[in-house]
Design a protein that fits this description.
CATH architecture of the largest domain: Roll
Radius of gyration: 28 Å
Distance between the termini: 96 Å
Order of helices and strands: HEEEHEEEHHHEEEEEHHEHHEEEEE
Oligomer: single chain
Number of strands: 17
Helix content: 25-40%
Length: 350
Amino acid sequence: MKSQKDKYETDKNIELTKFNGEKYNFESAYIQKREKVIKNFDIWFKNNRSEMFNNFLGSQTVSMVYNADIEEFAVSVESQHKIIFKFNIFVPQFVAQEFKNSVKNFRFSFVKQADKFILENINVLFQDKEFFAKDFDKNIFIEIEKQRVRELRIQKVKDFVVAIKDFIVERPKTSILISIILLTLIYFNIYIPIKYQYFVGTTNSFTAGQFTIRSSTFIDNKNGYMWEKPKKDEMNWYNAKSYCENLNLDGYSDWKLPSRDELHTLMTAYYGKYDSNRDTWFNNNEHKRNDGLFLPKEISGMFVKVGSWYWSSSINETYSSYSWIVGFNSGDGNWNGQADDYFVVCVRDL
């Protein structure tokens, strides 16, 4: 006859086995349901991704220049996020003027290849016929995604600040010490370096002969810097810093990753503050761009035109894993995680 202890152990094992069986069935069902949801989402995303990206791009500013000899428009499209698309499109001469007057928006279609999206085609419907673009940058999505991530990050920070403020309002009896600490963090923007640790933009003037262009470098005679002609490769901040510090070019080995202020010496104008005046500033200063960049004409051709974000050596004082990036095409900057990939240009003091 089993003792009470033996019976207890037997019943416990039976219940445990039953529980584990139910747990296994639940987890299996959950995994299957999760895989189904992910699969359905992937299908939905595949069918709707172009619409999503076009919605993100928003309103378009379109400019066209027609070449009658080859019957093509050279088109430049700028989205509301200041992302610029350039391409050519064939249009017969007899409808060219009407096409230019009528077309206000183009549609962009993206397709996934490996681990990234590329721009598959650009088209527009005109007089019941589709016109397709050519000679466009297929990797433009890289800049679109970075811009989207930056805006999402800023919104999350805004939401965080609102939540902290609500916490204080809804809990008036919370200890005075906790309230003071939270208010102090908000007041000094300790939790929001991405949005508030900025500077007010300004304008630079350039003189004739200020730059001396060499085969692999150029010299800024006014500010006393020698710059590497930038490469077209993107890399994270750590690799960018190492690349410059180990660079041996034109007989010099004292290269470095430039600071934010050093990068700004190259710019015709810049604005480093995310606020409601940003777009107004851009519209008022857009004429200072050369080849779509806030750079002097003498050097603008050396830099990447699309997604022209460059690393600086400047590190956020509160979050040491964030460094400043400068956007030559947008004219502004941002604190960004050092693990992300952006372009790099090296500098040395004369």
